[in-house]
Specification:
single chain; 250 residues; alpha/beta; TIM Barrel; eight-stranded mixed β-sheet; globular
Length: 250
C-alpha cells in the first residue's frame, strides 16, 4: 500500500508535542475559505510513499524525536484512511507517539472498522472545528458540521486524547456568540484536553495567485494574537460554565 503526500518535514515543532516528523498527506475534500495550502487539495498530485519508507525516514533522525513523534496532517489524512491505519499501526509497534491533525471530515458509517482500528493506534488527535454554526460551517468549508462532531464523539467514546483547534477569522468566526456556542458544543467531551485558538493569517494568498485561484477572503484583515487569546478565554469560559450546568447543546 502507498500513500500520497504533498511533502514531508523532518523537524516539525507546531504539529503536536515535541519535535516531530510530519507527513503532509495529499488531498482534501474540504474547501475552507481560509485554507493556506490549496496545493494540497488535489487527490492525485504529490509523491507516493509506502509506510515503511515513511518510518525509515523517521528512524534517520529518531534521536531528535525522543519527546516528539510522528504527525499525520494535510491536506486531510482521513481521505487515505486505510494507509493511515497501516502507518500508525506500524509506528505504534515501534514505540512512536502518533498524532493525527484532521478536520474530521469522514463518514462514520462507511468507515467504522477502520476508524476503530485508528483509535487504538492514535495517541493524540488535533481536531479542527471550523465554525460552531451549521450554516456558517457549510459556508466556510463547503462541508457539513455533522462530520467533525460525529468524529469527535466517536473518538471521545474510545478515550483518545483530543486537542481542539479553531481559527478565528474577523467577521466570520471571531464573533462573540459563535465563540460562546463553540464552548457549549465542546463541553460534553471529557477527552478534550486542550484548546488551541489560532489567528487567521493571509500567508497563503500568493499560492492562490500562483495557481490562478480567486482568494475567497480577499480584503478580510488578519486576526491578532491578542484577539486569539481573548477568543480562547471566551470559549473556555463558555465550556466550563456549560459543564457546570450539564446542558446538552446541539
Amino acid at each position: 500500500m502507498t500513500g500520497r503526500f504533498h511533502s514531508l518535514e523532518s523537524f516539525g515543532t507546531v504539529d503536536g508535542p515535541g519535535i516531530r516528523y510530519v507527513a503532509f498527506f495529499q488531498g482534501c475534500p474540504m474547501r475552507c475559505k481560509f485554507c493556506h495550502n490549496p496545493d494540497t487539495w488535489e487527490t492525485n498530485a504529490g509523491i507516493e510513499k509506502t509506510s515503511d519508507e515513511i518510518l525509515s525516514n523517521y528512524q534517520k533522525n529518531e534521536v531528535f524525536y525522543k519527546n516528539g513523534g510522528l504527525t499525520a496532517t494535510g491536506g486531510e489524512p482521513l481521505l487515505q484512511l486505510p494507509f493511515l491505519v497501516e502507518l500508525f499501526t506500524k509506528a505504534k509497534k515501534m514505540g512512536i507517539h502518533t498524532c493525527l491533525d484532521t478536520s474530521g471530515c469522514v463518514n462514520l458509517e462507511n468507515n467504522m472498522i477502520l476508524l476503530n482500528k485508528l483509535s487504538k493506534v492514535t495517541d493524540l488527535i488535533m481536531l479542527d472545528i471550523k465554525h460552531s454554526d451549521v450554516v456558517g460551517y457549510a459556508n466556510l468549508t463547503k462541508s457539513s458540521r455533522m462530520l467533525p462532531l460525529a468524529f469527535l464523539q466517536f473518538m471521545n467514546e474510545r478515550k483518545v486524547e483530543i486537542q481542539i483547534r479553531h481559527v478565528v477569522v474577523p467577521g466570520i468566526t471571531l464573533e462573540k456568540q459563535q465563540l460562546i456556542h463553540l464552548g457549549e458544543i465542546l463541553a460534553p467531551f471529557e477527552m478534550i484536553k486542550s484548546l488551541d485558538v489560532l489567528p487567521y493569517h493571509t500567508m497563503g494568498v500568493m499560492k492562490y495567485k500562483e495557481m490562478g485561484i480567486p482568494y475567497p477572503l480577499e480584503g478580510v484583515r488578519e486576526a491578532t494574537k491578542e484577539e486569539a487569546i481573548e477568543a480562547r478565554d471566551l470559549i473556555l469560559k463558555s465550556l466550563y460554565e456549560t459543564r457546570k450546568k450539564k446542558v446538552k447543546v446541539s
